[in-house]
Amino acid sequence: MSALSPDQARAMRDTADGGSGPDGKGPDGKGPDGKGPGGQGPGGDGPTGGHSATLAAKWEDLHQHAAQVAKLAQLSPEPFTGPLAAFPAQIGDATEWQRELAWQGVDDIEAMMRPGLAALETLRQRGASANAPALALWREFYTARGAVLALADR
C-alpha cells in the first residue's frame, strides 16, 4: 500500500488524471464523461454504476500485465476467474473506506507493474535472463493483490 493517506492519494489522482476516483467522480462531482455522478448519463446509471466499471477495467488490465510477468518468470498462466474476476463487483458493494483502500491498492500495484515490466523488457532486449527478476516482481504482485483482495472479505 501507499504511505499517503486516502485523501492525499485521491488529491494526487485528481491532479494527474482529471479526477476519476473510486466513486467514479471527478473534482467537479461528475463522472469522467462530464455527465452524472458515475458517468454514463445524468444519474450515473451505467451498466455497473460508475466506478466499478473503471476499477474492473484497471483490475483486468493489471492481470494482463501479471500474465506477461508470469510468462517471463516461466510460471503457468493464472486463470482470471472466480474471486479474481468477481472482485470489482464485491468491492463495489463494500463500504467507502474499503473502496478507497482497494482503489489505492490497485493504483499502487499498477505503479509497481509499469516500471517493472519496462525493466524486464529492457533485460530481455539486452539478451539477459529476466526469469529471476520476473519471479520477484510476480511475488510482489501476488502479495499486494492478496492484500487488496482481502478488503472484499471484510
Provide the descriptors you would attach to this structure in a database record.
154 residues; mainly alpha; 0% strand
Describe the structure.
The radius of gyration is 17 Å and the shape is globular. The protein has a domain at 51-154. The chain has helices at residues 6-17, 51-72, 83-92, 96-125, 131-150. With 154 residues, it is an all-alpha fold. The chain contains five helices and no strands.
Summarize the structure.
This protein has about 150 residues and is mainly α. The protein has 5 helices and no strands.
Instruction: Write down the secondary-structure element order.
Output: HHHHH
| Oligomeric description of these chains | single chain
The number of E-state strands comes to 0
End-to-end Cα distance, whole Å, is 17 Å
Helix tally equals 5
Percentage of residues in strands = under 5%
Layout of helices and strands:
Elements: H1 6-17, H2 51-72, H3 83-92, H4 96-125, H5 131-150
Helix pairs in contact: 2-3, 2-4, 2-5, 4-5
